[in-house]
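Need tokens for this chain, all 265 residues.
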Amino acid sequence: MSVQSLYTAATGMEAMEHKLDVIANNIANIGTIGFKKDRANFEDLFYRYQAVPGSEQNEPSTAVGIQTGVGTRVSSVQTNFRQGSMEETNRSLDVAIEGEGFIQVAGPNGELQYTRSGNLSLNRDGTLVLGSANIGRRIEPTVTLPPNVTSIQITSDGAISVLQEGQTEFQTVQTLQLARFPNPEGLLKLGDNIYGVSDASGQPTINNPGQPGFGLMRQGYLEASNVEPVRELIDLIQAQRNIELNSKIVQAGDETLSLISGLRR
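Here are the structure tokens for all 265 residues:
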């Protein structure tokens, strides 16, 4: 029995180590625009049955049986897509999504990818892109602004209007569209604030901001990470204590085995 306790406690320590990894990633991304926090979920492993509930081996039949679990494991890591707070930047190419939806961008191979980050920029061709440390991704549908633009307006419904030098009226050049998924928690996380489609996420529905089920665009704002530092620190303390408790089980099992091995002395 003491040997089993060692293995069971080891599964608990391994599971808590994974939780620490998730917490560390959340805390590391507190300042990442559009980041959504993760949560590690756990499930118990299979059970050893010494007596099955309702067994009629003995009379009367057992009411609860004897079932001993052998540990735990990570069942999933879920992403919390709760809205992050809005940070005012007053930059004309900064946009935040208030509500549901993702901005579409072109991936390295031309495939569509998705982001909640709205710190947009213009490349040398005047095309709107989402910049990153690795590569600039073109916004889809492609938005190319005319030359000599002096002012840019992005309305809540995604319409992009520009004022060119020498003109007095804004002209609409394109509309930012949003993508919405049946199961956003199933999206693939690709890094660089980018998500990819998976079988679990389902295929996206595309529409303009402000349409039923779709969020609004807010120019001059960015959506901050939805990580709550206090909550993460509480989870960190809890994970540390769980690891300590499992280590105590290992220590107790070792002491029991040491006592048994010394019976013949």
